[in-house]
Amino acid sequence: xxxxxxxxxxxxxxxxxxxxxxxxxxxxxxxxxxxxxxxxxxxxxxxxxxxxxxxxxxxxxxxxxxxxxxxxxxxxxxxxxxxxxxxxxxxxxxxxxxxxxxxxxxxxxxxxxxxxxxxxxxxxxxxxxxxxxxxxxxxxxxxxxxxxxxxxxxxxxxxxxxxxxxxxxxxxxxxxxxxxxxxxxxxxxxxxxxxxxxxxxxxxxxx
Length: 207
Hints:
The protein has helices spanning 2-29, 45-50, 53-62; strands at residues 33-42, 67-87, 92-111, 114-139, 143-160, 163-182, 185-194, 199-206. By secondary structure, it is an alpha+beta fold. The protein has an eight-stranded antiparallel barrel. It is elongated, with a radius of gyration of 27 Å. The relative contact order is 0.18.
């Protein structure tokens, strides 16, 4: 009798334990998912370092108005970026991105004592590759709110009046606010500062 009573008492406890183990096991065994993204940015640090109104103002002020500088024929593309990211069953995401930005412009230099002007033609091309990490504050079926950070390497090629120079340097980007809307296929926009631009927006696909 005592043995049968113990079995009756332990049976529901064992069933609860087995069910709990079963469900938690399924939850922990769930795999994450991958994201492929394509995006375009506006006003990246690469662009701002080449095309800045401060440069024109600095030349004018430094020369006491005797030398003038004007930037014309501005053509900028990018940054155009592609990325892959893995999101495990957590709020964090890890991945890598690569992108390219190009630009060309002319700087016209004039002086107070001469009517002649000199025109210098500039071109640049920057390729960036970087790991990226993000944190998702809100993650729903159709809506995601997140922030992200990336630190990588930029390969820059500059051309001034057909004279080419190449250099590499560490580069970074911080997206303070990112918004994504959609389920499998979604659109997103990010507000931040760095090589991806002040505003970066595009499409991504969950796999």
